[in-house]
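Now for our target.
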Amino acid sequence: MRAIAVGAAVLGLLLAGSALAGSFSGTTLRIRYWEDSAAPADSWTWTLRCGPARGTVPHPVRACARLASGGAKLFAPVPQNALCTQIYGGPQRARVVGTVDGRRVYATFTRTNGCEISRWQRISPWLVPAGGVR
């Protein structure tokens, strides 16, 4: 009986590992960041590929793990009928283009109100800076 339980646990780990590897392998992103969105020439660009984790983002392994757990929904836009606090978080802007787990992603992030700040924080600091690059 114990051998069956151990075998089932090992099989579960193997299946979970293969599902996680599938999530990693279909992920390729290009991240462009503007410290001041009014100065579009002054920007930084990073890349990220998962399976294995690599790229120019500061912590590719952490970013790939976060993407494996959150998926493409991390890039969902703010719903049109959302009520957002009118708090200005700064002029920063980021654009993320590519695929996450094989799903196409094209998202622009700003810090223009409470909803957009919250959305920014879903991907910060593992994909874009929390506040300032310099």
Observations:
- The radius of gyration is 18 Å.
- The beta strands are 27-34, 43-50, 54-55, 90-100, 103-111.
